[in-house]
Amino acid sequence: MTVANYSVKKSLKRARKFINGAILVVFIQSILAFYFATFLESHPQVTQNLKLVGSVVFILLTVFFLGKGIQNFIDSKGEIKKKATKSKLKPFLHGIFISGLNVFPIPYYAFVSLYLSAFIEDFFTNLVGLAFVVGTTLGTFVVFMGYAYLFRTIKHKVTFFIKNINFIIAIITGLIAVFTIYNLNK
User: Fold this and answer.
1) Is residue 19 within 8 Å of residue 95, measured between CB atoms?
2) Contact 16, 146 (CB under 8 A)
3) Contact residues for 15 (Cβ-Cβ < 8 A; gap 6+)
4) What is the full per-residue pLDDT of the chain (186 aa) written as tens digits?
5) Rounded to whole angstroms, how far apart are CA atoms 183 and 174?
């Protein structure tokens, strides 16, 4: 959403600077995740415990975003409140800071690595690891640029999305929690 905000309220140039900062962090996170996945592959008992912890985290996130959505709905009475907050950071540093706060990609990329290792022989090699890291970084860049251009072109139609973002995130995290709990017994 910050990418969309930069694109709509500021400029595509500033959005690109933000994206560059964000993908630098994604690059580092995907490296950490790949090496974390190599550890998990050799210690499968840890994976089961992480699934349980992850389920609890996603349940808590679901409750949090559901509460924020209800609070925003009650406070705004159907209208969007525009908060005039300005970052004192330059877009590149803002991208690094915001992406650095988001640690969810690390376990996500680790489990994607483990999943892919089931299909690709010798997955945990340096060459495949480099390809994985470059792929996640470029994929993130493409998605963020897509956000920047998409929200810039439909900026007058995003009211519903902005108004209900907390409910949307609550639904997504709730589904992830249910799916993870269901798969714990497998």
Assistant:
1) yes
2) no
3) 3, 6, 7, 91, 148
4) 777 778 777 888 888 999 999 999 999 999 999 999 898 888 878 877 777 777 788 788 889 888 888 887 887 764 545 554 566 778 899 889 988 888 878 888 888 888 888 888 889 999 999 999 999 999 999 999 988 888 777 776 766 776 777 788 889 888 888 887 887 776
5) 14
